[in-house]
Write a structure and sequence with these properties.
By secondary structure, this protein is mostly beta strands. It has 1 helix and 37 strands. 48% of the residues are buried.
Length: 509
Amino acid sequence: MKRTTLSLIAGATALAAVTGLAALTAPEGTAVPGATKATTRLPVERVGLACPVPSSSEVAETVYTSYTPTGTETGKTPGTGKDGAQRPTALLKPATGATATGGTGKKPTAPKAPATVTAPGKPVTAEANGASVPALTGSATGALAPGWTVQQTTVVPAGGSRGLLGLTCGAPDTDFWFPAASTAKARHDYVHLTNPDDAAAVADITLYGPEGVLKSQFTEGIPVPARSTVPVLLPTLTHEAAQRDVTVHVTTRSGRVGAAVGVADDKLGSDWISASADPSGSVVLPGIPADATSVRLVVFAPGQEDADLKVKLSTANGAIVPAGADTLHVKSGMTTSIDLPDLTRGSAASLFLSPENAKRPVPVVAALQVVRGKGDKSEIAFIPAAGAISARATVADNRAKASTLSLTAPDADAKVRITASAGSGAGTPASRTVTVRAGTTTPVTDLVPQGLKGSYALTVEPVSGGKVYAARTLAVPQDGVPMFTVQTLADDRGTVEVPSARQDLGVLD
């Protein structure tokens, strides 16, 4: 047989082998050879979260609620992961580094139960009490990953940090903005940096007051060891005079961290400040309780230009201009704040900030400090700027007669589907479709699972119409104090865009 014939046979055999291998290894749902498809969205298969040390109080009582919503199946058989062998997991573990003691010197104690989700659709809870509870890190894989959320809720019944502290444990990242923090003498604000990874991270914290950046004592960054947490008291970062309102910017030089600001006010109680949504020309702050006795708006413009903003209040009847606060000028690099007295007047509300010049929007970050009650019966909470829900968002640890879900649509009517999950103890899921009129805020208080025992999750899914923003208020009064906490809902990013691929044997030419 001639050499050219042998070469042709060998080439044909190689092509057949490559074609066969491509057919065997091509992912399910990829394009047929020769066909062209747009990108598709597939469920994520792994997510991570970090929960900070819940409290330094010996009398603190913390509940973790872990939940994965239904409806974003990965297509794998039950009980298997991506490779068909590993089981999907959704597990929280203590941050085991040397700094994970919460400053008490005591050995960290894990929650009594592992708070491990075993199937989508049912919340799992775990309790952990006292000051020695560590920060937690966790990950979810396979069918339990899309939409996995963990709520950390702490009650401190007495002492300087008295209050209800609520936090949706956040995904690790490299950049965070926290307006409405403080270095005032009555405030004890800590930035909690939690590193979920096996390599050390280095973080920078910059404070911005009403006159600009506050000079820092730290020039080399803050090391955060692997699988550890580091709490940093804000006043220790600067020698400058105490400031009532500061904006905190957390970035990492290497690695990534989970970040949140823990607030304790000598008179007003305590809560967490979650990160504001990314800087934007228009800002929505949803979920101001109807009985708020004090609301303070804090805004920061991180760019090179000043921001001139229009301020509107969204109520159940529409958007109105708050008396004496129709516009706000925010200087570049400086924290601007304004009190909004008698804001809600008995109606659950949201705040809209939009550029005066729509053609030249200047990005800002913002947060609200909200107070309920008066005198020594006051309680504080914070509402950061929220992002729109594009596909789905979930908040866990809702309780009968204690939860209010606030929905707002700034620009156009929107229709959303709300689902109350099964209860952590018992209960049948319930759903409802709600239309939110443009410019209004709609509170939902009566959607609970039938036969509820324990807590439940609320999932919001846009159906049609304009952008929707949401927040959940959890109110748990105790000893005459209207304890409460507010969590904004963020899109769970349970799916990811994957470009469609096609087999192209032309690369072998």
